[in-house]
Amino acid sequence: MILKITCTDTKGLIYKVTKCLYEAGLNIVKNDEYVDTDVNRFFMRTEYEGNEGGDAILERLKSLLPKDAKIKLTPDRRRRIILMASKEHHCLSDIVNRCENDDLQADIQCVISNHEVLRKSAARYDIPFYFIDHRKYSRQDHEKKILEVIDQYDIDYIILAKYMRILSSDFVQKYRNRMINIHHSFLPAFKGARPYNQAYMRGVKVIGASAHFVSEDLDEGPIIEQDTIRVHHGYSPREMAKAGKDVEKIVLARALDLVFQEKVFIQGNKTIVF
Amino acid sequence: MILKITCTDTKGLIYKVTKCLYEAGLNIVKNDEYVDTDVNRFFMRTEYEGNEGGDAILERLKSLLPKDAKIKLTPDRRRRIILMASKEHHCLSDIVNRCENDDLQADIQCVISNHEVLRKSAARYDIPFYFIDHRKYSRQDHEKKILEVIDQYDIDYIILAKYMRILSSDFVQKYRNRMINIHHSFLPAFKGARPYNQAYMRGVKVIGASAHFVSEDLDEGPIIEQDTIRVHHGYSPREMAKAGKDVEKIVLARALDLVFQEKVFIQGNKTIVF
Amino acid sequence: MILKITCTDTKGLIYKVTKCLYEAGLNIVKNDEYVDTDVNRFFMRTEYEGNEGGDAILERLKSLLPKDAKIKLTPDRRRRIILMASKEHHCLSDIVNRCENDDLQADIQCVISNHEVLRKSAARYDIPFYFIDHRKYSRQDHEKKILEVIDQYDIDYIILAKYMRILSSDFVQKYRNRMINIHHSFLPAFKGARPYNQAYMRGVKVIGASAHFVSEDLDEGPIIEQDTIRVHHGYSPREMAKAGKDVEKIVLARALDLVFQEKVFIQGNKTIVF
Amino acid sequence: MILKITCTDTKGLIYKVTKCLYEAGLNIVKNDEYVDTDVNRFFMRTEYEGNEGGDAILERLKSLLPKDAKIKLTPDRRRRIILMASKEHHCLSDIVNRCENDDLQADIQCVISNHEVLRKSAARYDIPFYFIDHRKYSRQDHEKKILEVIDQYDIDYIILAKYMRILSSDFVQKYRNRMINIHHSFLPAFKGARPYNQAYMRGVKVIGASAHFVSEDLDEGPIIEQDTIRVHHGYSPREMAKAGKDVEKIVLARALDLVFQEKVFIQGNKTIVF
């Protein structure tokens, strides 16, 4: 089981939590704590052996910890996810293969796209594919159609695997902290459209990618994972994009793995990643 | 000798240059070319053995190449530089030690600072140190005092080794393409003041540094070299700054080494680095 | 067209080659040269526009260059490859998706495996899959069976995409310079079996992967590409292997892309990569 | 204060330690734990506010923890170190400057060298320099002379900052776990002499450096920190060494900073680094 706790920081929190687990006869396998002193907040993630102790442990912890404590107890299980994508295959292909081969503990319920191009990629893995053409609908209706599809499924997370349309504030709020995007730049550099073109115009020597939770401000949500690679003057925008794809898919996959293992906490506009 | 050529791209340029050197009996050791197709411009850097052939080669090349060709022939020699710095020692210490031990082919003429703190660091290496207090003068007078010092020396480059004052447009223009700055972020992210604080507030997972030629727009000049390192939520702004210092000094030293070896061309707001 | 030349280094080689192309009215797009001074050997790769000039250019160059010159003129075309793999899917999945989506200019003719597990992965992409069980045959017969399959296809390269059997000297010689392997360590560290276990036992803080041409000495062939990632004491051998998979597949894909673009020369036990 | 504990792993250890500190009214600032399941050993590092509680806490913990527990309580203080070096300045220069400017919490007592070349570098910082010529003495006598110098000082650590002589088993044992070396390769690749030459001959695409505790087996001691940088075919052994110097000095400095902050545990031939 994975136990996640956040609450106001006070003396003795680790002691209280570990005491509670000790007295329940549970063996801690891995333990991480962090205090964000800016906001005086405590974060703790504890893995213990077995799937026992659920409700009793929760009750006991509630009585011991500060009243504002958020306590989450999650068994080790595969997450249910939906992928949204536009035309580029690399992130989708990568996630699909990881899931099929148990490198990522998730099951893809369906793919939703505003283009037809990735239908074949989804079909190869027998994953339902919904083409919802953004040119046929108003923005509002387009999102309504997407939500109708999503509502058919019981899901944990929505993954924007190179989905190139901006989602409305309403949409984002509905899946707050449950929607993860890969942005093809090293945020906060090159926010917005065509980041590789921006990077090329600026003549940078390093490019990157950022996986983040989606918030209402475009490309401003809490960053989960980032990485970079070197480029040089000889890279065209197209070659930068090609080199960048490898970083994008690896960064997104690492972020998903961290989130699915319950290793990520959101605090304001930042993440704590154990 | 190092030969640098830039001109409008046309067919046969490499052929013409190498023919000219071949006929002069010179042996090419290293050769790099690049065409910036956006602006149809050709760049070539050629190292050949020996220090011969100077004026004759230049004349011959001028007659063969397009009229807009810029041709520069440089013998292998140590550059004469001035360091400007404020309070932090790490870039200055690093450059001073590299120069003293022949890891960087340059001689430091003097250090100019708007604080007293680095006097000892300069003194340890018997380098003249000029403290010009920005609190005692108007911005204009302060720069005038600095220029009076610089004018005493015959120099190739001014290195802003963590000099934390913004220089006026007039100052920058006077040393156009001859002034190199280290910015303590991965540009264009976190331009301006206190980039590590900005990085901390944004919750990034990677930080970086950028060495660039100084242009009139702050932190917008042509980037020569950049690099990054990973950080995590546990880094305070102070710890980010500490980790960043190592990247800053290495990135600046690499940039200087490239420039002093004549491996860098400036084209618009970008560099070509061979 | 891509022109590759290697020969004994003498004065004027670049001049002679560029003259030949200039006089044929061909426009050079990209040009790279290198001299390995240890063995006094010259390497040049030139991309020129169009697919013209083939035989005539070759004849002309032969007459101009030293007698030992190897000259290769290749049109831009997709390579024909065979993948050999054992049980792990990540390199195979990655290559298959890149080829299907034009991120890698190659067509996979078939997959050969000594296990059944990857049959489904190949089938999803309608790629013929040959299961040749190494437990059923002597080493010699096993390779004979493999060669019978390979002989049915006209191929450019064999890719060992995590094929975990050692191939005999005879097999290797037959495909000298045409067989590329991904080794799951930063060679020459951790040669041989179970490198992640070796890395774990040694307590390293960085792990890596190496793509190389296969030579008769195990893990000793010319290295094409390598990369590394950081690990720490908390990684079990299994977690190192998981983290390493991402490096392996990216390193192998980059190596293949370089080879297929004719950017790689082999010189003795090293590569020159432009 | 920094509290370090290692002992056989049993249930409730974190609980017991945190309880002890909680009851003493001490506030934990940072806490890290790790269990090495291979050897069933528990490691814990706890930073708490203030310098109080020393002996009483130690006594209390001894009574609570398993009998094999090693408990170390260290106030935050500068370490006393000796540098040993041969001819290369870069690691020595870097450490000297960090110590002088408070980037590294240590005071250099003296420099011991088997060459004269670094005398000036030490003199610039008024650090005693002992030249002990290895050509004048037998190996045994040479080490005896070195030990005579070391014995004059009360030190915490000896830093081999590019000291290029192998030390005898007796010498190493005397400073077991207190002597840190920087090896100029990515261990275990290229053990022994002239690693850049070995790397060049092998044609690697990445080089590295490793900081490790010195053990009796050359280059086999517990690794504290490693890092790598990319090179290519165009790097001569000399250019590899030049590029490598930057990695060496940064890796060594990071390792020292970790050790001096009591963030490193040694377990067998590995380190746990918090």
UniProtKB/TrEMBL annotation, chains A, B, C, D:
<dbReference type="InterPro" id="IPR004810">
    <property type="entry name" value="PurU"/>
</dbReference>
<feature type="active site">
    <location>
        <position position="219"/>
    </location>
</feature>
<keyword id="KW-0658">Purine biosynthesis</keyword>
<keyword id="KW-0378">Hydrolase</keyword>
<protein>
    <recommendedName>
        <fullName>Formyltetrahydrofolate deformylase</fullName>
        <ecNumber>3.5.1.10</ecNumber>
    </recommendedName>
</protein>
<keyword id="KW-0554">One-carbon metabolism</keyword>
<dbReference type="InterPro" id="IPR036477">
    <property type="entry name" value="Formyl_transf_N_sf"/>
</dbReference>
<comment type="pathway">
    <text>Purine metabolism; IMP biosynthesis via de novo pathway; formate from 10-formyl-5,6,7,8-tetrahydrofolate: step 1/1.</text>
</comment>
<feature type="domain" description="ACT">
    <location>
        <begin position="2"/>
        <end position="76"/>
    </location>
</feature>
<comment type="similarity">
    <text>Belongs to the PurU family.</text>
</comment>
<comment type="function">
    <text>Catalyzes the hydrolysis of 10-formyltetrahydrofolate (formyl-FH4) to formate and tetrahydrofolate (FH4).</text>
</comment>
<dbReference type="GO" id="GO:0008864">
    <property type="term" value="F:formyltetrahydrofolate deformylase activity"/>
</dbReference>
<dbReference type="InterPro" id="IPR044074">
    <property type="entry name" value="PurU_ACT"/>
</dbReference>
<dbReference type="InterPro" id="IPR002912">
    <property type="entry name" value="ACT_dom"/>
</dbReference>
<dbReference type="InterPro" id="IPR045865">
    <property type="entry name" value="ACT-like_dom_sf"/>
</dbReference>
<dbReference type="InterPro" id="IPR002376">
    <property type="entry name" value="Formyl_transf_N"/>
</dbReference>
<dbReference type="GO" id="GO:0006189">
    <property type="term" value="P:'de novo' IMP biosynthetic process"/>
</dbReference>
<dbReference type="GO" id="GO:0006730">
    <property type="term" value="P:one-carbon metabolic process"/>
</dbReference>
<dbReference type="Pfam" id="PF00551">
    <property type="entry name" value="Formyl_trans_N"/>
</dbReference>
